[in-house]
Design brief:
Length: about 450
């Protein structure tokens, strides 16, 4: 079972009736990492995540990692959606790092940007991030749970278990992986419970064999309500134009309010060389959704090479609070990333080979990472309410533009960040929003 100060046991209901409110963001992610022991066993990590964090020493590191991952993914996913959590990846790889030694350890520390830290200091930082995120006085809901499922009779280092408890608050559960269906159901139930049923069927009986020895699971769930709510009755069906100029109908939320907004130049003359950045805060003003939108005539791919950690900081420092009209799709995105390929391209290679040194996990030799998969789910909406016919506010905006308009009716970049620390929690792009049933009306009817 999952145990964490901010969580309840997995057999108890996690979400109370009436929890949802108008206007929120909900995120769940799954990160699956399988480590294979040649002739000896299999070590698997499955992670379901969503989060919020901060710790000044770690902020730049996580942001730099998020940018590295983003550019690698955009080079392989062409015009697909991208969504991932650099924090979830850092946490998961951090768990493996606890058991790594030698050159395997050096590769992980270098790629994750820990070279400037003292050996082992990153674990304290990760622990502090988790503690800060799950503080009870927060205006958002964030829960983190770590568990280590161990095959009956298989020995792993006592020190490794102690460090997992110390830095990741992981509890140990003994199971029999030969009873694959039973173990899969037990783990899946806990993962579903801690991700509001967003991540389902993470394990199947086929994932376990007679060689399976250890499964490590990390579940994180985040939900934040908008500081300024989108009213469901203002949602209408709207055309979203993709980069290939095809169109799809999406439910478009609307509101006019005060948000952090700025216009920036990309250094070109195309479409005026200007793009828009909007930051929408959640309750408490600590976490925000930052969005970057190119002009309609400019494909998002034209601006993506500009994305750097320093540019994200420049956006945050330059946007000003002002009245803005916002048109934002109500959408959900579910993405799966073959993280093994991504991490290898970034430079973490040895743990995926027979040369891996993961001897701090177990004294047995031959342990190496076999698979790494990252799954992310994002949903932004106004509590799923059907849109009623309401014409006044939106009709007037069609007649006269009195304030800046940001209309997300073509692909855009997203970044969920901690406004106080600058920490990047999630990053991605929306190329193909999946419309939910809105029951709304076309704006042209107004």
């Amino acid at each position: 079972m999952f145990l964490h100060p901010a969580l309840i046991y997995c057999n108890a209901p996690f979400f109370e009736k009436g929890f949802y409110q108008e206007g929120y963001i909900e995120i769940s992610l799954v990160f699956k990492l399988s480590l294979t022991m040649h002739h000896f066993g299999i070590f698997s990590i499955f992670v379901a995540l969503t989060a919020v964090y901060g710790t000044s020493d770690h902020d730049d590191t996580i942001t730099e990692l998020s940018v590295k991952l983003y550019h690698d993914l955009r080079g392989t996913k062409e015009d697909d959606n991208i969504f991932f959590s650099p924090l979830s990846i850092a946490l998961c790889v951090g768990m493996v790092e606890l058991g790594a030694r030698g050159s395997s350890l050096k590769e992980i520390r270098h790629v994750l940007g820990y070279d400037r830290l003292k050996n082992g200091e990153e674990f304290t930082l990760l622990k502090d991030l988790s503690s800060m995120m799950t503080a009870q006085e927060k205006h958002y809901v964030l829960s983190i749970a770590n568990a280590l499922y161990l095959q009956d009779g298989f020995h792993i280092s006592d020190k490794f278990i102690q460090l997992m408890k110390k830095y990741f608050n992981a509890e140990v559960e003994n199971v029999d992986f030969k009873q694959g269906s039973t173990v899969a159901n037990e783990i899946n139930a806990c993962v579903e419970n801690h991700t509001n049923n967003r991540i389902r069927d993470l394990f199947s009986a086929e994932d376990f064999t007679d060689l399976t020895r250890l499964v490590l699971v990390n579940a994180i769930y985040f939900k934040g309500n908008w500081k300024s709510q989108f009213r469901p009755e203002n949602t209408r069906t709207f055309s979203f134009t993709k980069d290939d100029e095809s169109e799809v109908q999406v439910p478009m939320m609307y509101q006019k309010g005060e948000f952090y907004y700025g216009e920036f130049t990309d250094g070109s003359n195309e479409a005026g060389g200007v793009y828009q950045v909007l930051e929408i805060p959640y309750e408490g003003d600590e976490i925000s959704l930052m969005l970057m939108l190119s002009r309609q005539e400019v494909p998002l791919a034209t601006l993506e090479p500009l994305v750097k950690a320093s540019l994200i900081e420049e956006w945050a420092n330059s946007v000003k609070k002002q009245k803005v009209e916002v048109f934002l799709p109500r959408f959900k995105v579910e993405e799966v990333v073959n993280l093994k390929d991504t991490l290898q391209r970034l430079g973490i290679k040895e743990i995926f080979s027979r040369q891996a040194d993961l001897s701090a996990i177990s004294g047995d030799e031959g342990l190496f990472v076999d698979k790494a998969v990252h799954k992310a789910f994002l949903e932004i909406n106004e509590d799923g309410a059907e849109a009623a016919a309401a014409t006044g506010m939106i009709a007037s905006s069609r007649m006269a533009v009195l304030y800046p308009q940001v209309i997300f009716d073509h692909p855009f970049f997203i970044c969920i960040r901690n406004r106080k620390t600058g920490s990047v929690l999630f990053m991605g792009r929306v190329m193909h929003p999946e419309a939910l049933n809105s029951g709304g009306h076309d704006f042209e009817e107004l």
